[in-house]
Amino acid sequence: MTGIEKKGTVKKWLTSYGFIDAEGMQDDVFVHASETASGIPLSEGQVVQFEVQNSQRGPKAVNVKIVPVEE
């Protein structure tokens, strides 16, 4: 699962980390604030694009970018 690009919705966000409900994946994906492109904390409900990497604790999001909301 290294480097697979995905899209998903931030399911839960705590102070500096959270979980993404990724399209096409059964498990939630862990994300840390240091992996966001802007370094800005994410918010629950935001749509994001990211790459998935395997870690010892399960899937992890890297290179996370917020998908702009279409009006």
SSE map:
Elements: E1 4-13, E2 17-22, E3 29-32, E4 47-55, E5 58-66
Antiparallel strand pairs: 1-2, 1-4, 2-3, 4-5
How is this structure best described in words?
The model has no long low-confidence stretch (mean pLDDT 90). It is globular, with a radius of gyration of 11 Å. It starts with a strand and ends in a 5-residue tail after the last strand. Strand 4 and strand 5 form a beta hairpin. The chain is mostly beta strands. It has one domain: OB fold (Dihydrolipoamide Acetyltransferase, E2P) (Beta Barrel), CATH 2.40.50.140.
Q: What are the defining features of this structure?
A:
OB fold (Dihydrolipoamide Acetyltransferase, E2P), mainly beta, 0% helix, globular, 71 residues
Q: Do you know the CATH architecture?
A: Beta Barrel
Calculate the mean pLDDT score and round it.
90
Q: What is the spatial order of strands in the main beta sheet? A: 3-2-1-4-5
Element order, helices and strands?
EEEEE
Helix content class: under 10%
Distance between the termini: 33 Å
What is the domain tally? 1
- DSSP helical segment count: 0
CATH fold name: OB fold (Dihydrolipoamide Acetyltransferase, E2P)
Name the CATH homologous superfamily: Nucleic acid-binding proteins
| Beta strands, count | 5
* Global outline: globular
Q: How would you classify the quaternary structure?
A: single chain
Largest sheet: 5 strands, antiparallel
Radius of gyration: 11 Å
Regions with little confidence, pLDDT below 50 for 5+ residues = none
Under CATH at level 1, the class stands as Mainly Beta
Proportion in β-strands = over 45%
